[in-house]
Amino acid sequence: MALAETSTEAPKPERWSFQWKELHEEVITSGLCTGCAGCVISCPHDVIGYDHVQGGFKPFHIEE
Question: Is the pTM of the predicted complex or chain greater than 0.70?
Answer without folding.
Answer: no
